[in-house]
Amino acid sequence: MNILVFGATGQVARELQLLISGSQVHEAQFLDRAAADLSQPETCAAAIRAAAPDAVINAAAYTAVDRAEDEEELASTINGAAPGAMAGACAALAIPLVHISTDYVFAGDGDTPWTPSDPVAPQNAYGRSKLLGEEAVRAAGGPYAILRTSWVVSAFGNNFVKTMLRLGAERDKLTIVADQIGAPTCARDIARTCLAMAEQLQSNPEKSGTYHFSGTPLTSWAGFAREIFAQAGLSCAVEDIPSSAYPTPATRPLNSRLDCSATEITFGQPCPDWRDGLREILKDLET
Ligand SMILES: NC(=O)C1=CN([C@@H]2O[C@H](COP(=O)(O)OP(=O)(O)OC[C@H]3O[C@@H](n4cnc5c(N)ncnc54)[C@H](OP(=O)(O)O)[C@@H]3O)[C@@H](O)[C@H]2O)C=CC1
Ligand SMILES: Cc1cn([C@H]2C[C@H](O)[C@@H](COP(=O)(O)OP(=O)(O)O[C@H]3O[C@@H](C)C(=O)[C@@H](O)[C@H]3O)O2)c(=O)[nH]c1=O
What we know:
By secondary structure, the protein is α/β, with parallel strands linked by helices. The protein has helices at residues 11-21, 41-51, 72-93, 125-139, 160-170, 187-203, 221-232, 261-267, 274-286, and strands spanning 2-6, 27-31, 55-58, 97-102, 144-149, 152-153, 173-177, 181-182, 185-186, 209-212, 219-220, 237-241.
């Protein structure tokens, strides 16, 4: 397959580059911000028409959760209107679009894992902007997969692992929220699943729909930090705190548990153990 990827510098996009460069059967073109600026949605549709690919993966997004509170209009264009324009162009060519979304579309109440058909009620501007993207992709009428994931980490870019390694080396103790429950997901695993979805949607467009994909087992951010320090050999202590003791501009959902069973059943992609992925990330960061 000839795949067009929006995003080149992000965590998932970088892993897609590694995955596809090692592939005998796929080739891909990665569009950075200069090649396709998602704040100008029509340039995204034009890029798809010009490339005429077999499938499109959107790995670009406005991901600055707190900043989005002050820039909701821009976040909505990038995360809402741009995926809508991509989906329209893909539908016109009858090619699949794989679009990545987030646990932050859910309200975060309760302690039951969210299924893809559960009601959404984002609690922050980033979540609202991602929900707009989901709705626009579904409305376009072409083959698609919306892949909701959570707590993405990798050796690339900025993420919680990198923040903890930096702070954990500087401090003896960190206070970390322990009442937000979910699962870290390694960008490498997301890349593999996006590719599998693109492949399978090409011959089986009836698999179109909204899916969940995250790592296993469940943990809190505090639990995640402890595992990072244990694997990295850092002696920094972690004190559990409630979200109320760590005020941020954007409210985060307390319940980020995702029921990923449909992704395994439909696409053969089970939840990977994020602790194995974390080991790979730490090894990659050493070299
Ligand atoms: N990070 C996370 O914890 C989570 C992410 N997701 C979703 O997963 C997907 C991938 O996220 P991730 O890999 O972490 O993203 P990153 O934050 O690592 O990267 C975001 C990418 O989007 C690009 N981008 C931002 N604005 C624009 C724009 N106006 N035009 C073109 N490109 C732009 C960035 O380019 P540049 O380098 O030029 O800024 C960068 O390549 C996104 O859809 C995100 O919403 C879902 C759950 C959790
Ligand atoms: C640095 C730090 C963070 N925290 C908390 C704040 C927050 O609740 C949690 C994680 O912080 P972050 O800012 O990395 O998280 P955040 O940017 O909200 O991460 C989210 O990003 C978007 C893009 C998504 O789609 C989500 O799935 C999720 O991964 O850790 C502490 O409690 N103590 C600390 O010292």
